[in-house]
Amino acid sequence: MATERYSCTLTEAELEVATEQLREDPSTRAIEIKTLRDRLGKYPGLHARTDALFLLRFLRARKFDQEAAFQLVINYYKARRDEGEIFNDLKPSRVKHVFESGYCTALGITDRQGAVVILDKPGSWDIDRFSELDLIKADVLTIEKLIAEERNQVHGFCLLVDYAGFGLSHLARTPPSFAMRLCRLWQDVFPARLKAVHIVNEPSSFGNIFGLFR
User: Which residues contact 99 (CB under 8 A, 6 or more apart)?
Assistant: First the structure.
């Protein structure tokens, strides 16, 4: 069974955080995984990954609440089905130009609480070369890669958004649906704990219009 092959990679300190903040119990972890796997196996038409490493992402993201973790898995697969624009052909080579622009970067550092820091720089978006959809794809790929690491499942993410260089031309090309899509992915789809969002160099001259996107 997948649970029998699972080997926890968390350090003692990370496991302590998982126990205190996420209600993770090593003695019942295998049971929790099996319970979620069994429930998913009974869901009509769902062909989900059910290995321990994958299911633990969802359990940890919802603090081992079985019902909430189950719903998050369903949301994840529904999003992959319904958001074909984002998830079809989702691979780094597809948005290499976005990463090269510096728009989305995993900084390789953590904040004081241990959350891994992701830097987004909307001002580096070359609106003549790529669309806002490519920005979302780059964000999704970055998060998907980072969430595979168990320590990030426990400590979560810190999003740093630097609006230096972001102008009215960018704002005009950024529909409200862009912000709504990203918010939905973070809150209802990704098995990720978004612990903090910090915004710097906000163009205050945009006033209430920019507040909508915040």
Answer: 92, 105, 138
Residue 6 belongs to some domain of the structure: no
Distance separating alpha carbons of residues 54 and 156, to the nearest angstrom: 16
pLDDT in tens, the chain (214 residues): 344 579 999 999 999 999 999 999 999 999 999 999 999 999 999 999 999 999 999 999 999 999 999 999 999 999 999 999 999 989 999 999 999 999 999 999 999 999 999 999 999 999 999 988 999 999 999 999 999 999 999 999 999 999 999 888 888 887 777 778 888 898 899 999 999 999 899 877 666 555 655 5
Q: Are residues 80 and 97 in the same domain?
A: no
The Cα-based distances of 184 to 26, 120, 140, 213 in angstroms read 31, 17, 12, 13
Number of domains in the chain: 2
Question: Is the Cα dihedral 159, 115, 49, 58 positive or negative?
Answer: negative
Specify the residue for token string 């160099």: 201
Residues 103 and 78 in one domain: no
Contact 112, 58 (CB under 8 A): no
Same structural domain for residues 79 and 119?
A: no
Structure tokens at 180: 């709504």
